[in-house]
Structures are given as structure tokens and as C-alpha cells.
Amino acid sequence: MAILNQQLKEQLKRRFSERLRDPVQLTLYTRPGSGRLILPGGLGCATCGDARELADDLAAAAPEQVRLEVVDVSERTELERPVPSLTLGATNGEADQDGGRLGWQGLPAGYEFATVVDAIERVSRSEHGLAEATLDALSELTEPVDLMVFATPT
């Protein structure tokens, strides 16, 4: 069963054609061919195939603006990250060395999918959507900060 049906794919194409300006880089970290069974030691990936399908659909919705790189972590042993993971960054040099400044761990489907679409649009337009008070508070930071946001419908 497809994650995004044809109607949703068409809506995504229309939305991206109206809202995207500059290219963005999506990077999917996966372990293909490992199957859905999770073995001791973290082998296996129950949702890597679904994550690949979702990432492919996002890139296909705007192939000129959404660039997708798929990284097989089993071939890149220096990468220690959970799979699947999806990162997003601008293609104008703003992406960090890990492939993106924004990231999702796990399959970003369901409620999380809207945050991926919104983030792609904001990064493409270089819009952060933060209030002036927030920007002022952030300007006071003297050291790098990692910010984690957890999404749940409950």
C-alpha cells in the first residue's frame, strides 16, 4: 500500500509549485534490504522501505527544487545514526556537515508529514517564521545549541 495516494501526490505537486522558490536538499539515511525484523544490535529497519518511498514522493513532487540523496548507513560505517532518518537543508551552503540543519528520526508519516512539508517550504523560501522576541533571545546565545522538538498527537 502506498503511503501517499495519487490525489495527495497531485496536491503536493501543486502546493510545491506555488510555494517553493530555492532548491533544498533532503538526505535519507537508511539500511536497505535489512527487512522489517529488528535483531539484537540494531540490525534491521522496520520502516526504511516506507521512508524511502515517502522521500521519493517528496522529491518527485518538485524535482527541480527538492534534491534527494539516499545514504546507506551499512556502507558508511562512520555514520552512527538511527534509521530511517531524514535531514533537510538549503543547497546554498547553509546545510551542516551531517546533511541538513533539520532532521526527523523514524518514519515522518502521519502527523509528522505536515512538519516535513512545512519545513521544505520554509527552507526553500529562507523563512523561519520566528517572532522578533524569539530572534532577540536567540541572538543572546554564545554557544551552539541543539534544539529537539517532539511531535505527538496526544
The gist of it:
This is Thioredoxin-like fold domain-containing protein. It comes from Candidatus Dormiibacter inghamiae. By secondary structure, the protein is α+β, with helices and mostly antiparallel strands.
Keywords, separated by commas or semicolons:
Thioredoxin-like fold domain-containing protein; alpha+beta; four-stranded mixed β-sheet; 154 residues; 4 strands; 4 helices; Thioredoxin-like_sf
Describe the structure.
This is Thioredoxin-like fold domain-containing protein. This protein is α+β, with helices and mostly antiparallel strands. The chain contains 4 helices and 4 strands, in the order αβαβββαα. The chain has a 4-stranded mixed beta sheet with strand order 2-1-3-4, covered by helices on one side. It is globular and about 45 Å long. The chain starts with 5 loop residues before the first helix and ends in a 15-residue tail after the last helix. The model is unreliable at 94-98 (pLDDT under 50).
Task: Tell me the radius of gyration.
Answer: 16 Å
From the spread of the alpha carbons, the general shape counts as globular
Which series of helices and strands comes N to C? HEHEEEHH
Kindly state the mean pLDDT as a whole number?
A: 86
Would you count the extended β strands for me? 4
The share of residues in extended strands comes to: 15-25%
InterPro entries: Thioredoxin-like_sf (IPR036249)
Protein name: Thioredoxin-like fold domain-containing protein
